[in-house]
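Technical note accompanying the year-one report. For the benefit of new consortium partners, we illustrate the data format agreed upon in the data management plan: each record pairs a sequence with a C-alpha cell string. No post-processing was applied to the example shown here.
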Amino acid sequence: MFSLLLAAPASIKLAASRGSDTDMADAEPTLEALRAEIDAIDEDLHRQIMRRAEVALRIRAAKSANGSDPVFMRPAREAQVLRRLLERHHGSFPRAVIVRLWREIMAAVLRMQGPFSLAVYAPERAAGYWDLARDHFGSLTPASAHDSPQQVLTALAAGRASVGILPLPDADDPQPWWPSLLSHDAKRPRIVARLPFGSGETVRGAPLEAFAVAPVASEPTGRDRTLLIVEAGGPMSRSELASRVKAAGFETATIQSWQPRSDYQVWLHLLDVEGYMTQDDPKLAGLAERVGESVRQVWPVGGYAVPFAAGDLNPANKPSEG
C-alpha cells in the first residue's frame, strides 16, 4: 500500500494536499474571515434595527387611522419585551447589557413617534437620579433637572415633560410628593415604573431607586405591584394597618403615612402591594372593609412591573439548590 502511494501521480498528491488545506481552513478560520463575519453580523443587526423602527411607526399610523389613542409609551409592553429576551438569552454576553441596549432602542423609538422628554428630580446632592433616568429612558432623551419633587410634578402637569423621575417615598418627608397623585382625572400622572429595571451599577450613589410617573394607563405584565393610597378619617398606626392589610389577603412591601396640615381629620397611607389592580377591582372594596370603618376611599395611583433581580441578570451568581 505504501508503495502505491509513493507511485501515485503528482496530480493526485496535489489534490490530497489541497483537501487537507481546506479542512484546516474550515477548522481554523483566519482572522480576516472572522472579522468579515463580524461585519456581516453588524450589518444584519443594523438592518433589523431599522426594520424595527419602521414597524413601530406603522403601528403608530395604524392607531391614528382607526381612531385609537396613539399612546407612545407602554411601560408594561416594554417590560414584557425585556423579560422575553432574557428568558431566551444564552451565552457569555452580559444580560444587563441586553437590557441597556433595548432600553436605548425603545427610547429612540419613543422619540421618533412624538415629543418625548423627562423632568428629573436631580438636586446637586442626588445626581444618581439623573443616571437612573438616562439608563432607563435613553442617553439622548431631552431632560431637565429639578431641585424638588414638586417642581417635577409641575413640569409634568404643564406639559413640559412626558415623564417625571421622583425619589422613592421617604417616611421622614414632611411634605411627600405622592399625595399629589390623588385625582379622579384620567389624565393625571400615575406611577408607571420603578427604576432601575435592570442593573443599577452605573448609578452614582448606588444603591438608589426611583419611581417614574406619567399620565399613562397601567397594564398588567404578569409580575406587577400596585400603589394604593388609603384615605382614612381616623388615626391608625402603620403596624396596625399592615396587620389589617395582610388579613385582607394583600402582601404589602411598604407603607408610608402622612396627615395633611390643612385637614387634621384626614390620614393618608401609601401601600405598595403585590399584584395588578385598577379602580374597579373588587379586591379594593374588600380591603376597605377589612381596614376599618374610618376608610373613606382606596385610590390606585399606579403600579409597576417588578424589576429584574440580581440573579436574573447574573444567573451564574444564583445560589445553588440542595
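Partners are asked to follow this layout when depositing records. DSSP finds ten helices and nine strands in the chain.
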